[in-house]
Inverse folding.
């Protein structure tokens, strides 16, 4: 279809293509009434369902879309490195208000397939394919095994439809003039921006495809056309960068402070998976022995290209007159090579051969922030889908029974080799009135809570915690994010009370009453929650708290007790013996480095905390900082109380503790902040 064909006709065709794409999606996903109360797939689907709730909460109460205090409480966390996918979660949040959030999430999954189908259909029509041929290519792009596998929970990665939409707009901008050219360039910029707000993996792929298209168009243009085309492409790039720059900057900051991603060697596309059906395909029943040798999970292990699309690509490449696919072939080929990771893999065996990703990640370490390089493979289906459309059109153009029969057989074979298994659904195991979650939801926050809600310490840091949070509605100490915040995770792992809950091999040395006070004041925790399975329930039970609610076989709840601790006159950290004695009496220290050698005291990190049972009065915090550059120490406690000084050698910081500074359980929490070198804390003593 040439660019001169009336837009009205293409719009009408797109409407019917949308109907066809939606029907195929409903069939492939096995639409069912349970979609009203369950998510398609499971696992990470709950993460994306949580995103809809987060966006809805922000729209109703205000706040930042890119930050939340509901996860990693009490400090909260950034969502720039998370799969927030605003192009999905914003409309999903609005739809969820009327249709329910389960229905809204599942509708977004279906719409993603519809968008991919329609977008590729339109691009194929622009390149000269007929309606039936364009539909065949659209089916390849939308229902390719690596793309369909994302329906198991990766809603953000289903947004590939924005790529052909942006390319169509660039095509129109390249072949038009005047206002139509600049309008199409603006639309291309908008589509590329939508990619950036959908997923950063897709944003890279969109930029790669757009850059390849622009280069080929400018190079092949006549002298009088190059400047205009280059200007249109530059406008599209400028608009997309301007719109997405804040998100790019936030992602860069998150990448520098977050935890690492998947290991690219193993989260890559195996060479064998390109030609061996994956477990998400019905055809895998024909190759069980080969299929099972790829031990990646269902979502990450699908890499099958398809014999029909590969054959179609070979047919089109043999025709020297058909050069429309050069840009797609280059972009898809580059993406496919990158998806193989730093070294090729045959089933689960790594070959000692370096690939381009290894060098790129060495030059640009931020590329390994995600690590799942296999996700780049989806762009390889752009040339495969367009080749399928053009090869089909070439066959049908012959208008012979033999050619039509070949096209029909190829279509049936394609349907057979791409046919997916049922992705299934996952319902929340908790009923609306679940006793465990209801006990938390109805509880009033304690008087010292720093936020509007008391915090829940869910021992399970996985997706199950999000399911439970949707039931109890409280902020929680952990959060199932795409990339957990590095500093926050490190603080919890090293914490004297929370750390042992994350590590079954580590035992807590903190007594029960002191642990309760520490959880309340350091972490603002009112409830400990654990799934009723091993080892989580045993880890939570170690705290020694009295169980207050439970839902059999589902969840257990412990309310954090509020026990008054007897005041101390002195807390010493000069020796391990003094530290143990202080700990036994209720003093808890967190944020300190491991004791080294015979140092008389504990070295702080940049932020440390001391919880001490005290009586009001004047106290001295004895510290030391031998070295050439004396650090500045700030100590905060109570309600806005602060003392600070430069620590040069042995010194003391005077702390005046008023009755209002002491919590109801008789404790005071001291927050110590200094530079990364820290200070050496000898102890705390009363001066009254």
């Amino acid at each position: 279809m040439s660019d001169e064909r009336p837009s009205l006709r293409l719009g009408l065709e797109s409407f019917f293509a949308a109907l066809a794409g939606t029907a195929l999606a409903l069939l492939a996903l096995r639409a069912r009434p349970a979609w009203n109360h369950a998510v398609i797939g499971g696992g990470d689907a709950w993460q994306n369902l949580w995103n809809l709730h987060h966006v809805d909460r922000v729209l109703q109460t205000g706040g930042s879309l890119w930050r939340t205090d509901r996860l990693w409480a009490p400090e909260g966390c950034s969502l720039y490195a998370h799969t927030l996918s605003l192009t999905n979660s914003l409309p999903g949040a609005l739809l969820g208000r009327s249709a329910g959030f389960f229905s809204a999430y599942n509708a977004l999954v279906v719409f993603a397939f519809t968008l991919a189908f329609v977008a590729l259909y339109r691009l194929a029509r622009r390149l000269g394919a007929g309606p039936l041929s364009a539909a065949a290519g659209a089916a390849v792009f939308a229902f390719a095994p690596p793309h369909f596998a994302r329906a198991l929970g990766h809603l953000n990665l289903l947004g590939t439809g924005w790529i052909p939409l942006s390319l169509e707009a660039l095509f129109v901008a390249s072949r038009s003039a005047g206002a139509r050219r600049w309008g199409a360039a603006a639309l291309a910029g908008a589509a590329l921006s939508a990619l950036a707000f959908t997923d950063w993996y897709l944003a890279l792929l969109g930029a790669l495809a757009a850059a390849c298209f622009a280069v080929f168009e400018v190079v092949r243009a006549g002298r009088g056309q190059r400047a205009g085309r280059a200007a249109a492409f530059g406008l599209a790039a400028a608009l997309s960068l301007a719109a997405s720059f804040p998100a790019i900057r936030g992602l860069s900051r998150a990448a520098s402070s977050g935890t690492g991603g998947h290991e690219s060697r193993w989260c890559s596309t195996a060479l064998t998976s390109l030609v061996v059906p994956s477990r998400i395909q019905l055809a895998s029943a024909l190759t069980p022995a080969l299929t099972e040798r790829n031990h990646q999970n269902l979502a990450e292990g699908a890499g099958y290209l398809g014999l029909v699309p590969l054959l179609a690509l070979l047919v089109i490449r043999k025709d020297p007159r058909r050069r429309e696919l050069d840009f797609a072939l280059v972009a898809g080929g580059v993406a496919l090579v990158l998806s193989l990771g730093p070294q090729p893999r045959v089933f689960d065996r790594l070959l000692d051969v370096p690939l381009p990703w290894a060098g790129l990640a060495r030059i640009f370490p931020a590329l390994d922030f995600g690590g799942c390089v296999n996700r780049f493979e989806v762009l390889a289906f752009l040339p495969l889908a367009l080749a399928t459309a053009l090869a089909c059109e070439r066959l049908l153009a012959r208008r012979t029974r033999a050619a039509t029969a070949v096209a029909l057989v190829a279509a049936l074979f394609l349907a057979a080799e791409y046919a997916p298994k049922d992705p299934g659904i996952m319902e929340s195991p908790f009923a609306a009135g679940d006793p465990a979650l209801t006990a938390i939801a109805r509880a009033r926050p304690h008087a010292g809570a720093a936020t509007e809600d008391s915090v829940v310490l869910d021992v399970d840091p996985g997706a199950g915690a999000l399911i439970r949070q949707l039931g109890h509605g409280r902020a929680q100490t952990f959060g199932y994010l795409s990339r957990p915040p590095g500093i926050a995770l490190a603080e919890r792992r090293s914490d004297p009370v929370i750390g042992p809950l994350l590590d079954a091999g580590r035992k807590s040395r903190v007594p029960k009453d002191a642990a309760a006070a520490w959880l309340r004041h350091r972490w603002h925790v009112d409830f400990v929650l654990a799934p009723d399975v091993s080892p989580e329930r045993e880890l939570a039970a170690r705290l020694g708290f009295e169980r207050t609610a439970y839902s059999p076989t589902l969840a257990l709840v412990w309310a954090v007790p509020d026990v008054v601790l007897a005041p101390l006159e002195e807390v010493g950290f000069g020796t391990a013996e003094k530290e143990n004695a202080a700990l036994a009496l209720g003093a808890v220290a967190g944020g300190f480095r491991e004791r080294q050698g015979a140092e008389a005291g504990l070295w702080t990190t940049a932020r440390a905390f001391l919880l001490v049972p005290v009586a009001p009065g004047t106290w001295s915090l004895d510290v030391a900082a031998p070295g050439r550059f004396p650090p500045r120490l700030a100590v905060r406690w109570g309600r806005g109380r602060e003392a600070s000084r430069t620590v040069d050698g042995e010194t003391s910081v005077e702390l005046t503790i008023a009755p209002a500074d002491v919590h109801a359980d008789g404790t005071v929490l001291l927050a110590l902040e200094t530079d990364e070198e820290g200070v050496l804390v000898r102890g705390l003593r009363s001066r009254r």
